[in-house]
Amino acid sequence: MTATPPFDQIDACVFDAYGTLFDVHSAVAQCRSMFANPDAEADKVSEIWRMKQLSYSWLRSLMGPKHHVEFWTVTGEALDFALESVLGAAAPGPAGLRDALLDSYLTLNIYSEVLGTLRTLKAGGKKLAILSNGSREMLNRAADNSGISDLMDAILSVEDVGIFKPDPRVYQLAVDRLGVTSDRISFQSSNAWDASAASAFGFRVAWINRFGQAKERIPGAPDAELRRLDELPPLLGL
Fold first, then answer.
1. 38 lies in which domain range?
2. Roughly what angle, to the nearest 10 degrees, separates helices 38-63 and 71-87?
C-alpha cells in the first residue's frame, strides 16, 4: 500500500506571522542608526526583544486569564527588558528610540519570497490565512503595509480566544473560521515550538527553518522542514 503524501488534499494554507512572513529583526534594522553604538547594541536588543516577547506570552498564559494582555503590550514589555539589559542605566536609549522601535514593529519587512509564494498558492485555489499571537491591529497594519492583505481569506488573532499559542484553542480558530478540517490544513511556521504544537493539534505542518534551528523535543513533529517559504508550493503540486 502506498502511503498518502503528507501534503496531499490540502484546502487551506495557514501561516504564522512573525518570523514566518514578517522579519521580526527588521524593526531594529529600521532604527539601527538611532543607537549610540549600533554594532554593539542593535543586534543584542533585537535578539533579547524577540526572546522575551515569546517567553512573556507563555508566562502570561500560564498565569491565567486575568493576566492576559494583547501582544502589543507584551511587545512593549519585552522591548523595555531588552533595552535595559543592553543599555543599562542609559535605557531607554537616545530620545525617541523606544517609540521608533515599537512603531517599526507595525511595518515589519516581509521576507523576499513571501508575496510570490502567496500569489502562487492563491492562484492554485488554496484558502490563505494568518494565525498569530499578534493583536488585530498589529496584524492588519503589517499585512496592509506589506501588500498581502488582499490575498488573505482571514487574518486570525489569538485575541479571539484570549490566550497565546501554543494553546490548542488558537489552532482551532483556523478550523472554525475557514471551515476546513485540520487534516486538510497546511500550517507554516518558522518557530520550531509552534510547528510542533500545530502538528500535535492535527495540522499538517511545514516548518520554515530559516535559521537552522535544532528540532524541538516536545509532542508533535512537522511533516516537512523547509528553508524558505517558496519551497511550499511544489509540495502541494503547484
1. 26-107
2. 140
pTM > 0.90: yes or no: yes
Instruction: Mark whether 225 and 119 lie in a shared domain.
Output: yes
Total number of domains in the chain: 2
Q: What is the mean pLDDT of each successive set of 10 residues along the chain, which is 238 residues long? A: 67 98 97 94 98 98 97 98 91 86 96 98 98 97 97 98 98 98 98 98 97 94 96 95
Domain end (from 86, 107, 128)? 107
In a domain? residue 210: yes
Handedness of CA 10, 12, 13, 18 (dihedral sign): negative
Q: Which distant-in-sequence residues (6+ apart) come within 8 Å of 170 by Cβ?
A: 131, 158, 161, 163, 164
| Residues 99 and 176 placed together within one structural domain of the fold | no
CB-neighbour burial class of residue 40 (10 A; exposed 0-12, middle 13-18, buried 19+): exposed
Catalytic site residue 16? yes
Given the residues 8, 11, 16, 103, the one annotated as active site:
16
Q: What cell numbers appear for 193 in the block?
A: 515550538
Counting beta carbons within 10 angstroms of the beta carbon of residue 102, is it exposed (0 to 12), middle (13 to 18) or buried (19 or more)? middle
